[in-house]
Specification:
Helix content is about 50%, strand content about 20%. It is an alpha+beta fold and about 230 residues long. It starts with 5 loop residues before the first helix and ends with a helix. It comes from Streptomyces incanus.
Length: about 230
Amino acid sequence: MLPGRGPDGRAAVARLSRLLGIRTAWTAVGDGEFFCPGCGGDRNYRRLTGRRRFALLGVPLLPRGTTGPVVECAACRGHFGTDILDHPTTTRFSAMLRDAVHTVALAVLAAGGTCARASLETAVTAVRAAGFDDCTQDQLAALVEALAADTGRFTGEPCAAGLAIELHEALDPLAPHLAAPGRESILLQGARIALADGPYTPAERDTLSTVGAALTLCATDVTRLLTAARTPS
């Protein structure tokens, strides 16, 4: 029987691994909160770097270089690459989604030019569903007025550079973490706000095209979705 095969061979390999092997000494260099894919939720983590050493009888002897850094979950002790920290926590993701819907609603209302009651009602429904439970029509109308005063533009105009920047700031960080249906849903919410008081105006179409671009939706998909939103379900 070849060495390492069968029960006796495996037992011999196990004994050898206890006598000889590579041991890693980990050092914590940071901590925080992240979304742990092992646990499936937000957890605390430690960022670790390690030094590898050849060990005899469990005693580290010869250095074998460094390893890491890695992210260690405080709950399940799983180790993950540091790119895992690029993913937002559940709490952060919810806040990003809420802010994105709120920004889109304001942009579309500003583009509409009148803040008609039907549009405000539709916008409030979307914003509340996203997490702003106490949002009211008066609040949104006041914010649209403040937005117009701050940017020096009139409502009803095409999407100005300042407003386009705000849309990209709200949507660019979110888009990579949303599947296509999620990104399409945000655009469709904006489309329904625009359509609540009548057909799209050129300014509303321009704003919604900016929203679609920020959500990394191609122009063909944006056109398809804006057309679909006009069709009664």
